[in-house]
Fold:
Amino acid sequence: MVYIERVSHQKYVMRTTATFNVTVEESHAVLKKVLPLMSQQQVPTIPQNYAVWYDYVCEANEALVADLRARMEQGLRFSPDACQRIYEKYFLNELRAQVGEIQGAMTRTVDAAASELGGLDQELGRYVTVLDEASATLGRMAPPPELDELVSRLATETRSARDRSAAAEAALGAMRSELDELRTQVDALSRDARQDALTGVANRRAFDDGLRRMMLDVEDNGAELCLLFADVDRFAEFNDAHGREVADQVLRFVAQEMDQCVKGRDLLARYDGARFAILLPATSYNGALMLAESIRAIIEAQVVETDGGEEVGEITVSIGVAQCQAGESAAEFVERADACMRQAKSQGRNRVAGERDLRG
Structure:
């Protein structure tokens, strides 16, 4: 595990709990415990999984130990998705949070130093004023040359110190601005990596991550999860008739209308091309059907015009609805929702088809 250690007033370093002074005998002893345990739980022996179970055997993380024990007591399997989730939770997510802590600590340190320098600058300013007044007074009193020279030197050095303080404060201000800009860029990169550039909704990567996470909730807690697959009807015809720019406008319109219908933990994503997916955690099958029908009706009722005021024709979507079943894979879940969507198209488009319709 990774943790942050403050080694000086302005310096932080990342360290790990893993040490390199473990003897061969000790490492072999851990290995003899880890590998059979991983084999028993059918966990692939890849480095990430080994790191997790190494910490479990060594009891290096109480929360991780409790999590794995609870899963084993409940008889839950350690699927590849579950293993990845555990690794991200106890290794990657913690590291990301700690990197954020470092950034915050650096900013606070810079701000504190700038504040101190600002106070020092004020004190030096007052000191320069006192020295100037003393020099003027001594000038009227005709003091010995040595004393007059000393006061002048003190005033000169004080002004020099004040200039250096101002320069340091300016440098810290620039550093603070750079840190703020860096944080903004990191946030933007993280957002862009999970956002579809054309429509502004989540992209396929964000969908895959969300699907894996929500399906694990189904596996762990028996939570309900439904998936809507929506495809813009006759989208190729829009593209051929009006061009790419109008076709893109249609996709943005559909995404916008769908986005207004989702809420809370729901996740809307552009899956690919003209297909969109909506993950609905804690939503029943009937509730998902109702939402799908609402989305279909709202889109059908709208009129979309080009920038020149020309109507592009009726826009409709075909939507498939599936409910996650315990023990199935993400691919099976997605395929069933997609099959429902294809059935809606085969039945005439602009309609909703659920998985129970497939069985009928």
The beta strands are 2-8, 11-16, 225-232, 267-272, 275-281, 317-323, 352-354. Residues 90 and 184 are 26 Å apart (CA to CA). The first strand starts at residue 2 and ends at 8. Residues 80-141 form the longest helix (62 residues).
